[in-house]
Sequence to fold (127 residues):
Amino acid sequence: QVQLVESGGGLVQPGGSLTVSCAASGFTLDRYNIGWFRQAPGKEREGVSCISSGSGYTVYADSVKGRFTISRDNAKNIVYLQMNSLKPEDTAVYYCAAIRRIFYGSLCLRTDYYASWGQGTQVTVSS
Fold:
C-alpha cells in the first residue's frame, strides 16, 4: 500500500528557509514520480515542484523557481523540498503526491496526474 507522510512544516519569518520532507512506505520512491503541491486557504491546490523517477529530472513552478529545490534520498526513501527566501504568499499546507507512470514534464505539476497523496504539513511565513 502506497503511503506518504509529510513533515517539517512550521512557522518561519519572511526571507527564512525551511525544508519539508515526504517519507514513503509501501513502495520505493525512486520508481515513482513525486510532486509537491500547496494549498492556501480559499485557493486551489497548486503544483510547486516535481521530480521524475529514475533520472530525477525536476520541474518547478515559476513562482518558486530559484528559491525552492526538490531532491530525493533513495537510501532513506524520502523526497525533500528545500525552501529559501520564503515569502508570506508561500504560506499554505504542503502536500506530496506519487504516481508510477511515464513522466510528461510539466504535466507533473497537475493535481490530476497523481494517484496517491499525503495528508500535508502546514508552512506559515510570517513575522
